[in-house]
Amino acid sequence: MTRQAEKPFLYVVVCAAGVAAGVDRLITAAQARDWAVGVIATPVAAGGFFDLEAAAARTGRPVRSAWRTPADPRPFPPPDAVAVAPATFNTVNKWAAGIADTLALGTLCEAAGLGIPVAALPCVAAALAAHPAYLDSLARLRGMGVRFGEPYNGEVRPDGSRPDFAWERALDLLGPL
Ligand SMILES: Cc1cc2nc3c(=O)[nH]c(=O)nc-3n(C[C@H](O)[C@H](O)[C@H](O)COP(=O)(O)O)c2cc1C
């Protein structure tokens, strides 16, 4: 933990999967475990996949998606840990390839170099999860120390229900700091 007198700071990186609408559950669970939270959304996720105003109200900080300008102060403290949930096929592959063309990806790409723990909960359809590039990406990121939750494809069951997305698993993977 970088600031002894303050709560540890968790970046929640939200990608553009349908389950992102439920990210409030992760934010509240993290706060219940005594994390302070800042939300970073991919540009697509920020374009309508979850309620930005609700997330800002819950965390007390604006949801970030765009890069700041060099003159702007850093709006969040440095992270003590990062949770990527949901993690999309697109973001997992770009992250593993070292592409940093969004704030979310830049944050993820530098986390390993900062030596902070990162947990990721993929939400990827089975057809995409079978792509060899995705399998390589998972292996590469695991090799960098990223802690992955169990595969989740978000597909609807025959009875119309959807399996629960295990948001709290990201916190379990990070453990206590
Ligand atoms: C309604 C909707 C739901 C989606 N759900 C998923 C999903 O569960 N997993 C996924 O990998 N992509 C999903 N996508 C596709 C991604 O949004 C798309 O690949 C996007 O480029 C991902 O951007 P990001 O990784 O920067 O957030 C979904 C798209 C839509 C329109």
TrEMBL record:
GO molecular function, one term: catalytic activity
Entries under Pfam families matching the protein: Flavoprotein
Domain Flavoprotein: 12-140
Source organism, top-level taxon: Bacteria
InterPro entries: Flavin_trans-like (IPR036551), Flavoprotein (IPR003382)
Protein name: Flavoprotein
SUPFAM superfamilies in the cross-refs: Homo-oligomeric flavin-containing Cys decarboxylases, HFCD
